[in-house]
Q: What sequence folds into this?
């Protein structure tokens, strides 16, 4: 999906079915979730009222996934959400949680990339050592490697 196209539009019908207006067919919540996992943006409109129900549908997807894993958020956080409702937590979820999640994903990718580079470097060094060129990877080879005894003064 080209990001310049904007969100892919779906229609939600009263019978809980979701219609993909782009592909002209019905989709499941799991298929809709897969579009989002692939980086696509979706917009879900109620077919009867024309109301934007995207947040409701995405929440439903998250809850379905949480039901399968038997956890979404820790109980104390859920208590706070119920206790304070929209008043206090709405701004936090809209602003800070989104930013925290994006920063975490960016940081995780950076760490994963760096770790991969270290593994690649280690594999390169292992191959170099396997070909008998240990002096390239061992700075002490001159002291303990073959021929190191040739330069020793003879104490006899």
A:
């Amino acid at each position: 999906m080209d990001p310049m196209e904007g969100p892919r539009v779906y229609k939600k019908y009263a019978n809980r079915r979701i219609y993909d207006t782009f592909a002209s067919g019905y989709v499941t919540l799991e298929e809709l979730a897969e579009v989002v996992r692939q980086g696509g943006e979706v917009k879900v409109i109620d077919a009867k009222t024309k109301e934007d129900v995207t947040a409701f549908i995405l929440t439903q997807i998250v809850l379905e996934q949480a039901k399968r894993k038997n956890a979404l958020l820790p109980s104390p956080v859920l208590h706070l959400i119920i206790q304070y409702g929209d008043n206090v937590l709405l701004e936090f979820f809209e602003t800070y949680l989104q930013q925290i999640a994006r920063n975490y994903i960016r940081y995780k990718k950076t760490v994963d990339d760096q770790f991969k580079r270290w593994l690649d470097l280690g594999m390169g060094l292992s191959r170099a050592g396997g070909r008998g060129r240990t002096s390239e990877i061992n700075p002490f080879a001159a002291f303990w490697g073959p021929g190191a005894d040739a330069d020793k003064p003879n104490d006899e």
Observations:
- Residues 1-70 form one domain.
- Residues 35 and 79 are 31 Å apart (CA to CA).
